[in-house]
Design a protein that fits this description.
The complex is a heterodimer. By secondary structure, chain A is an alpha/beta fold. Chain A contains 14 helices and 20 strands. Chain B is an alpha/beta fold. Helix content of chain B is 39%, strand content 14%. Chain B is built from 14 helices and 9 strands. The termini of chain B are close together. In chain B, 49% of the residues are buried. Classes of the chains: A alpha/beta, B alpha/beta. At the A-B interface, helix 6 of A face helix 6 of B.
């Protein structure tokens, strides 16, 4: 089984590729990235396909290696390594009425994601190997996208005792987090950061000083005008500062979830400059919307951290470009409609964002020229991969320098064998063929009723967005096309 | 009265949720319409047939005696059929959702819903989900438009105008829907607005609304034409926003010596119920500058005007 993605603009940041090329997928792996007409390996295919660049399968003939090849015309499209979402809530086990691993996997595939990391605030909490194993097994049964569970930092996310991190890692967890709240006790957070060093996994921190954050929206001009209790930016910044201090104390790898304030960014900037192993993510909704939209009292605008004011959004956007923000993560938080169809003050916090994330970034940032398209691809691929895989960023840099010293580097020069994870977020030859194809010109209106996610809670509903994922390939298989998941 | 010429403006409006999005013309129309309504309230026979056959229901999810009674009488004086959902005895206590409660009421056929709710935005949510016309009788810490309208009516009645007056609003601005609606309404008429109260009870961003924030009474009151004193709620002290009611009254109770700083003919408003000896001294509350009792009558008149405009009453039936 072979699949040829033909004539797209291939953007593969890990391998410094940004050119109109073809991508050949064979046996579920990236077989070649290059030009069909000039690449030695692909000449035969090129001849066979000279006038057959359609969607239909093409038989290479009755030769010794007769095999079918499917060609996808990717002209005008962006062909990228599979997008990774570091922060999704799949709600299973326990809250299947909000989302389950199947509906969440469908939503991810439709949204252009090939790998998603799911948060442990389920019931029971992913604080032991059995639950983590259940999540992985369910995801494999569903078989659409890669699901990497995130274990809890503390047992039952209660903030008191460390969960069995070794068991969680053995069961496939790639990080730990008590997402949804901060680990309030500084000693517990300290121990988590210290202990995590044994496994080389990051500690993902939801930063919120709960004593300051009992509100409905960002505190500022609009909370005054709309008469809703405010959540000050400082509720986030205090915890970011504390966690950065603890990261310095412990040498643990700290990742700040859904960073949303200017002050938090400044703190992370100082920490990075001083050499701390800290990373951070931002969400599409915090990048695209300001607190002004809350004036509709549409509960779909209610999210934690809250949508911030213009100055914070401007700081976030700048930090995307500058590289201060390492990745874009959705914080996909599906809710049952009943918990949103109510008074603003009673509504649940959260946005169902995985199906609109790419389009929101394309439309609000890439389209208007605020974010370079290649940088956007980094933020969805090498960025999150670098958070998950220890030292990945530096290893890639090393590999790139080795390959560029060769006489004929070419995009396929890196053929590092080994574990699958180092390939995450790349189109490196030999890597599992996880590919996201984006149609930058496709215009579509967000229709939450058509979401695969059970959560229809999106503040982007009814918006016309330009630039959508049009094909999601996981392990060489097309799992979604034109926004519809393969049956 | 000029009512008929302008009443088409209100035909386009389904709900009255706040003064934020109400035009100057609409406010003037309401205040002008309230004038003949006030005459009706003072008649011996307080009944005109203009809204007969119309239904009004009041739903109060938060305790209120005067606002609910004011609406109810306003409806009755205009011959509307009025009914009240007593929330404590309703199925809300059984866990019914707001949407279901409102739908149930809607199916009983009233034309207008008057609603108070402890949560900001609840009337906006209801308005989107019902064919009834909705009047916000106070939502959370957001707006209380009819209170601000009656305040404006009272100001205009005594001062002859609203435009470009200097107004001080005293007390808990952070949590006050009365303050917000007053600010939105008065700012539309070019008033210079100052607020004063403990720094813990001052919301951010008021300067962007053209409002000056003061921490002490004297700064706010100097030279003003109108002083609007807000009720301080004891629970604010309990949640640590100021140390004690004694200290609050020491620092923020409006006293006669403060009034001497204001303009000579300054007036004092209070939305009630008053905490005498805490935010307002009895000397002021019972003095000549206070319009507090007149505000209550004006409240009925303004609400009659609003019901009249929103339920499409016939103007020939309110003429004296």
């Amino acid at each position: 089984m072979r699949l040829l993605l033909k004539g797209g603009r291939v953007i593969d940041p890990a391998n410094n590729v940004d050119a109109v090329l073809d991508v050949l997928i064979e046996d579920g792996r990236i077989a070649a990235v290059g030009s069909v007409r000039h690449d030695e390996d692909m000449r035969a295919n090129a001849d066979a396909n000279a006038d057959a660049d359609t969607d239909t399968g093409v038989c290479l003939g009755a030769g010794t290696h007769a095999a079918s090849i499917t060609t996808a015309d990717c002209r005008g499209k962006l062909v990228c390594p599979g997008f990774i979402d570091l922060h999704a809530h799949l709600r299973e086990p326990g809250y299947e009425y909000k989302e389950d691993i199947s509906s969440g996997s469908h939503a991810a595939a439709a949204g252009g994601f090939t790998t998603i990391c799911c948060m442990p605030n389920t019931d029971p909490v992913i604080d032991n190997g059995a639950v983590a194993g259940f999540v992985r097994r369910r995801a494999q049964e569903v078989g659409l996208v890669n699901v990497l569970p995130i274990g809890a930092i503390t047992k039952k996310q209660a903030g008191d005792e460390l969960a069995e991190m070794g068991e969680l890692v053995a069961a496939g967890c790639i990080a730990v987090s008590d997402d949804g709240k901060s680990v309030l006790r500084s000693d517990v957070m300290r121990h988590a950061l210290e202990y995590s060093r044994l496994f080389g996994i990051p500690v993902l921190s939801h930063c919120e000083d709960a004593s300051l954050s009992a509100g409905q929206m960002h505190e500022g001009y609009y909370s005054t005008v709309y008469g809703l209790k405010g959540i000050p930016a400082e509720a986030e910044e205090i915890m970011v500062a504390r966690d950065l201090i603890l990261a310095r104390l412990t040498g643990g790898r700290l990742h700040i979830c859904h960073i949303s304030t200017k002050g938090a960014l400044e703190a992370v900037k100082r920490a990075k400059a001083s050499g701390l192993a800290v990373t951070c993510e931002a969400t599409p909704h915090h990048l695209a919307l300001t607190d002004e939209v809350v004036g509709s009292y549409d509960t779909d605008t209610k999210v934690n951290p809250p949508l911030r004011s213009e100055e914070h959004v401007a700081a976030l956007r700048e930090a995307l470009t500058s590289g201060l923000i390492d990745c874009i993560a959705t914080d996909h938080a599906p809710h049952h409609f009943e918990s949103k169809d109510c008074e603003y003050g009673l509504a649940s916090f959260g946005i169902s964002g995985i199906e609109t994330a790419v389009a929101v970034i394309m439309d609000t940032l890439v389209g208007p020229g605020l974010l370079d398209i290649a940088r956007m691809v980094e933020l969805f691929t090498t960025g999150p991969a670098g958070v998950i895989v220890e030292g990945k960023a530096s290893r890639q840099a090393q590999e790139a320098s080795i390959s560029s010293s060769k006489a004929t580097p070419g995009p396929c020069a890196i053929q590092t064998p080994g574990r699958a994870v180092p390939y995450l977020g790349t189109l490196t030859c030999g890597a599992p063929a996880d590919v996201t194809v984006i149609d930058p010109d496709l215009v579509r209106t967000v229709d939450a009723r058509k979401f695969y996610s059970r959560g229809k809670n999106t503040p982007f509903k009814g918006m016309e967005l330009k630039g959508w994922p049009c094909m999601t390939i996981v392990g060489g298989r097309i799992v979604a096309k034109d926004g519809r998941v393969a049956r | 009265m000029g009512i008929s010429a302008q009443s088409t403006q209100f035909d386009r409006r389904k709900d009255l949720l706040g003064l934020k999005d109400v035009s100057n013309e609409e406010i003037e129309l309401i205040l002008n319409t309230a004038l003949p309504m006030k005459d009706i309230v003072r008649r011996e026979i307080k009944k005109v047939p203009t809204l007969r056959g119309k239904g009004m229901i009041t739903v109060f999810y938060e305790n209120s005696t005067r606002t609910r009674t004011s609406f109810e009488l306003a409806g009755k004086y205009l011959s509307a059929d009025t009914s009240n959902l007593a929330v404590s005895t309703s199925s809300v206590q059984k866990g019914e959702t707001l949407r279901d409660t409102i739908k149930t009421l809607e199916m009983m056929g009233p034309d207008i819903l008057v609603m108070r709710h402890s949560m900001t935005g609840a009337p906006h949510y209801v308005a989107k989900n019902t064919s009834m016309r909705v009047i916000n009788a106070g939502d959370g810490t957001n707006e209380h438009p009819t209170q601000a309208l009656l305040d404006m009516f009272s100001i205009r009645e005594r001062k002859g105008r609203i435009d470009n007056l200097k107004v001080a609003i005293l007390g808990d601005i952070l949590h006050s829907r009365v303050a917000r609606s007053n600010i939105y309404g008065l700012a539309k008429f070019g008033c210079e607005i100052r607020v004063a109260g403990p720094p813990t009870l001052m919301p951010p961003g008021l300067d962007r609304l053209g409002v000056k924030t003061c921490f002490n009474l004297e700064d706010a009151i100097r030279g003003v034409d109108v002083i609007n004193v807000l009720r301080i709620q004891r629970e604010r002290q309990q949640t640590g926003l100021f140390p004690s009611l004694d200290e609050y009254s020491e620092l923020y109770m409006l006293r006669p010596e403060h009034l001497s700083l204001a303009a000579d003919d300054a007036i004092v408003l209070h939305p009630g119920p008053m905490n005498r000896g805490i935010e307002i001294s009895s000397d002021i509350a019972d003095g000549d500058a206070a319009l507090i009792n007149e505000q209550v009558t004006n409240g009925v008149a303004v609400r009659m005007a609003l019901l009249f405009l929103m339920m499409g009453g016939r103007k020939d039936e309110i003429a004296a």
